[in-house]
Amino acid sequence: MEIMTDHGFRKTIKILRALLFISLIGMIGALLFFVGILTYAKILGPPTLAVPQSTLIFADDGTLIGESHNGQKRYWVKLDNISKDLVNATISIEDKNFYEHHGFDYKRIGGAVLADIQAFAKVQGASTITQQYARNLFLKHEKTWTRKLSEAFYTIRLEMNYSKKEILEGYLNTIYYGNGAYGIEAASQYYFGKKASELNLAEASLLAGIPKGPNIYAPTSSMENAKTRQKIILQSMVNDGFISKNQAETAAAQPLTIVGKHTTPKVKIAPYFQDAVKNALKNQLNLDDRTIALGGLKVYTTLDLKQQKKAEEQIAQVVNESSEIQVGLIAMNPKNGHVKAMVGGRDYEKSPFNRAVQAIRQPGSTIKPILYYAALEHGFTPSSTMRSEYTTFHFDNGQADYTPHNFNNKYANDEITLAQALAVSDNIFAVKTHLFLGEGTLIETAKKFGLSTKMKDVPSLALGTSGVRVIEMANAYSMFANGGNKVHPTLITRVEDSNGNIIFEKEETKEKVLDEAKAFVMTHMMTGVFDPKLNGYTKVTGSTILKDLTRPYAGKSGSTETDSWMIGFAPQLVTAVWVGYDASKPIEIPEEKSYAKKIWAKFMEAALDGKSVRAFKPPKEGVVGLYVNPANGKLATKDCPIRRLTYYIEGTEPTEYCTEHIGHKDKKNEGKEKKIPWYKRIMPWS
To answer: Does the keyword Ligase apply (predicted)?
Structure first.
């Protein structure tokens, strides 16, 4: 019996040793596994905290004009800019030991397990703020072991690599508060119409209760449920020493006004402009769609809100509400190409197609200043003359005959100057100039002015029969206005990422593309569009809007059967206006044919109201200004009835004086004295 007992004892000892050994191996294995997990987490380094955030778009004065959100509102604010009451309320109700644990609250986990066992169901959560943050950042909200293990691993990585302040800030900026509001800033704006930094205790305690169940505890879903949970949170804050019992009671009784709407309105400011900005982010800055939509970018643009409003107002006032005609408008600062206003159509909700940027339409006579700039380069001057008359052009190369027509088939049937041909928009003069220069000259010159659309090498190109974009025409005229410097249409001045780092900033460069003297001579010739001194066989094309203009302008109108244009500028601002039908239907109603000029005139006056009146200043050298007879381009004498100051490239100015009016006054008076009125001849007694 003693032997058996001794044998059994030894056997028990062996078993215990084996169990101890196995346990030791298990503990060592678990320790090694845990160390391995920590080492692997350390090797991987900090996980990227890139979370979806709304991209914000700002006008040139810093005003928020729009955002990309895909139905979700996401903003990021620093922890220091979040109400302390909200921070304390969140910690108290979500994770009161947040500052003590390292990602996992084991005591709370144990309590949750016991509660679940007792209820035979999952009734209590034990996720810390770090675990919830990990889930929001990297994982789907599915209830699987794989997801839980991944959550644990990301939790370890977050705690190893980020401070408690960074984790708490990230959590408060990513948690969902219902109604499309992600993060406390979006929630505060939606529910109370204020910044997260401005929340009081009553508001903060109400918002802190929403993440547990946004569909249940959001005040927009049930104010009763929201207030019930608010009281629970306030009591928890009392228990944790964040507030006094009296503060809790006061906050619970405080009436709250729920706004219930996001700050950015549905109808966006300058929607066509914003679409163009997003397109520029993608195609010019090479950002992908997700970064543009949810990268938390801050995009600073060139838009002038006052000018944008004026553009929309003038279009609405001028265009008959019942008309189906469309409008495209671009206003631009000629010095740097900054687009100050953009209208791509009359109603964005009905048609988001941007006619100011995307449409390619025939420019008509607005192409002529570019043609005549080329003419200046080839020796023409404002006083160069050609005959304006009905003309059919014949070609030796087998090309079909071409017969252009002037407006209303009116012709001078005499010699006219280049300056007058531009002012009255004589088509015969333009085609003759085009053919004289060679049909390829205008194509190459147009490229110099930044026009990118393909142009046909045909005689009618001089009359604007090859399509262009409104924004490119505004840019081309900017080069006249700024003295010949190259500019590009610019919508964006700076872009910052979600952390405030500048990822793009527009650099201002100066590159001379046009000859400054020739650009000024051309600009001054374009002022003739508004000068009755250049009236000839017909009135100057700007005569119909002269009464609306109060300062010096240069410009050119243009029209085809289907398109109506007006492009012009003051030294501070260039504006291009196109009017027409999307389906290229002919513009037949007289009122609609005048829309482009009227919109341009009213907008320019409104946009420049209150700004200094500036004249077009000639360059310090290279040009000469002389008074000439505008009818023949010769130097004016004191006898000429009309004298107009005209600028020339130095060395090309006229030297011949006008002799048509010398002694003309005396001869005219003499004729009057001898002439007998018709009624005297018939009735000498009268």
So the answer is: no
